[in-house]
Amino acid sequence: MRDPESLTIPISLDRRARRPLQEQLAEQLATAVDRGQLAHGRRLPSTRTLAERLDVSRGVALAAYEVLYSRGYLESRRGSGTYVAGRPADRPAAVRALPATASRCELIDCTPGQATRDGFPLAAWRAAWRHASFQPPLTCDLPRGGLPELRQAVTEHLRRTRGLVSEDHEVLITTGAPQGVMHVLTALGARGRRVAVQDPAPQVLGQAVENAGATAVALPANRDGLWSGVVPPSCTAVVVSPDGQAPSGTVMPALRRRQLADWARRENGYLVAVAQDHIVPSAAPLPRLLQLAGTRVVAVGDFRTVFAPSLRVGYVLMHRSLLSDVTWSVCRGNDQPSAVAQSAMAHLLAGGHVTRRLRQLGRLFERKDALVRAALAPLRPAVRLAAPGTPGVTVVHLPDHVRAEQVHAELTLRGVAVPTLASFHLPGRPAGNALVLGHGHLPDRALRTALEELTAVLRAGRAVIDRASGL
């Protein structure tokens, strides 16, 4: 049975006045609607409830509603009740719909790391949240480390998709991979110390190191982005993505993985392996750092680009000896997802929806990568595209006389945001003359528009580029 709707505006009826009570009531309700005190779509009390609250007969309430119905203030919804009707002529101009324009005014954002709506498994998504919301709310604080069913589901997911199996390691739930990196480094006592980070890498990783109070230094790499085999001195940890470093998608070969493991054992350092959502296929047969360095390895990740960034659920896989310290950091920062979000994520994982979505996205990204390469093929050999790496991302290398920063500026003027490769490097680090085109999240129409604008800028030659450089 639906709870009686309350009336939150003051109603004053004067029984000594000559004016009938129903007219007084109707006028005061109409005034409340006109002033916005009773908003469009607001459900009103039934005539019986209203009469009881105002201590009048039901006939008075019924007559007042009839007046308001006739004047267009109220509408009836069958089986639901009486609601304040929409009155377009009375709405403030600030909330009226703006006229449609033919021009495109929304920015096409080609920054990597975003989720796509293409083929979104809406039925599974709704079922997961329905399942989570059907559970009675917790009557106590969230379990330290996260809901047991989610921790178990993530453990099984990592075993199936990445071969990460260790009886001595446990999963801890966080709100995302960058947050996981920060909490791990905090627990390791990295404040005031140096932490090596693969370079280039997403800016959020360097920021996570700084948020832990540490200093991020670049892990030396060659021109192709491969680690040179040297770890800078005095580093307490190394943050890497061995199975596909964004944005290039460079996969760390087996030899370099063994060298990292040797460094961790020799220097008592730690390896923080950031698991990208989508595994680069060439990384599948290579040994995992967890297998090579065991207790010195912590894996972090999340599912933000699999479904949606708003699903802020991540994980940390670490040796039991670190569990209490990392858990303390997470709890101190109140950095756990809600119980409902954790339950929904557990349902998605247990039902196999995450692995199915990953396979679906793999096919989608392959198709869009082919579209990008076909559109930019006429610009070769001056414009060189890096080999396929991070799924949904293409690195576009430009000739020396066409600077990436200038192309970026001109594209921004045209409503297309394409970051430069330099924006993925730590400050002061040398960067290649390239753009990083994130395309996996874009609808086909937006992607084609972005490619048309990029092609036009690159074909226009120095005249257009020089105009951008003078901004």
Automatic annotation (TrEMBL):
Taxonomic lineage from the root: Bacteria, Bacillati, Actinomycetota, Actinomycetes, Pseudonocardiales
Gene3D superfamilies assigned to the protein according to its UniProt record, in alphabetical order: Type I PLP-dependent aspartate aminotransferase-like (Major domain), Winged helix-like DNA-binding domain superfamily/Winged helix DNA-binding domain
Domain HTH gntR-type: 19-87
GO molecular function, one term: transaminase activity
Xref: PROSITE patterns: HTH_GNTR
UniProt key word Aminoacyl-tRNA synthetase: no
UniProt cross-references to PANTHER family, sorted A to Z: HTH-TYPE TRANSCRIPTIONAL REGULATORY PROTEIN GABR (PTHR46577:SF1)
Keywords attached to this entry: Aminotransferase, DNA-binding, Pyridoxal phosphate, Transcription, Transcription regulation, Transferase
Protein's name in the database: GntR family transcriptional regulator / MocR family aminotransferase
Keyword Transcription regulation: yes
Similarity comment: family membership: In the C-terminal section; belongs to the class-I pyridoxal-phosphate-dependent aminotransferase family.
